[in-house]
Amino acid sequence: MKKILITGANRGIGLALTKTYLQAGWHVLATCRDPLIASELNSLAPTFPELQVFALDVTNYDQMEELSEKLAPVAIDIVINNAGIYGPKDYAFGETDIEAWREVMEVNVFSTMRLAELFYTHLCNGNEKIFAAISSKVGSHTMNTKGGGYIYRSSKAALNSVVKSLSNDLLGEGIRTVAIHPGWVQTEMGGPNALITPDESANGIYSVLSHFVDAQSGGFYDYGGDAIPW
User: Fold this and answer.
1) Which of 8, 70, 84, 192 has its CA 20 to 30 A from that of 57?
2) How do residues 6-26 score in pLDDT, each as one tens digit?
3) Superfamily of the domain at 3-222
């Protein structure tokens, strides 16, 4: 049975991805900060015995290392780093919160790199060998025509750069990487006026990864499979 690790799996896109992969017959290793209060995620367990839930704060690198060691015998086919935060909204030039910026970079960028390092061996032992990071098209330099959004925008641009460098370093060992824009999704972050549901996004991401080829590694794609310019 194929295995996938999904971070931030207790709600939104992460929860939808968990449901999608379980319904497709995958063994899902789902992580969230506090499984004890992840009621919707835990409610899937009676129907899907292939679900395992683990505690993981992606910025707690000791905890991440402990999980990596606990899962050391497990070959993992795909890792999706979905966990992420937006940070402050509606701030103008001259009002930037530097501490908040550091926090967003920690969650969205630094943790992604550490996750790749700690689950590298698990991916090497898997068959699909895909490391995917949920990004955003606001991280595209080409599509940045409005300015603003310095904190979130820069974190996703940095994330995309990490994904590209990982591909350069790991493709020779069979590990493919990808940054995925999930669309504007009706989640706590995206808001109720967003264009698509979490399930629509998750189904698209599932399709993209199911048809992913080596030539796409290190690329930046949306949930429909279309390439996004850097």
Assistant:
1) 192
2) 999 999 999 999 999 999 999
3) NAD(P)-binding Rossmann-like Domain (3.40.50.720)
